[in-house]
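pls design
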């Protein structure tokens, strides 16, 4: 490709923005999937804990150690975590929707410039 055949600066800038936007989308998608996995894991754990008798001794891992914790406290912590993760997942979804619209706009603009 000679110097005269190079694409205009606007095309290069739009292509770069498109690539950056796609990278952000992938990152947000990964975060959202990780949060959804954590939510599912917490729900399954809570389900199994509900099947255990109230007087059963339960432990919570703290690093490499285990601390004795009441079953109700574990369930409460799981519920709190699920709510927080759900809020974060919804925020990721909202950001992803916004980035998809930006992506579509960039594609249209790039097609117009070419």
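designed seq:
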């Amino acid at each position: 490709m000679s110097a005269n055949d190079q694409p205009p600066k606007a095309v290069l800038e739009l292509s770069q923005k498109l690539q950056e936007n796609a990278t952000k989308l992938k990152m947000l998608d990964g975060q959202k999937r990780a949060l959804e996995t954590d939510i599912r894991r917490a729900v399954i754990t809570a389900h199994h804990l509900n099947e255990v008798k109230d007087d059963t001794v339960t432990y919570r891992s703290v690093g490499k150690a285990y601390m004795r914790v009441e079953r109700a406290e574990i369930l409460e912590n799981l519920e709190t975590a699920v709510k927080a993760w759900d809020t974060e997942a919804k925020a990721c979804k909202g950001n992803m929707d916004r980035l998809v619209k930006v992506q579509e706009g960039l594609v249209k603009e790039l097609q117009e410039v070419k």
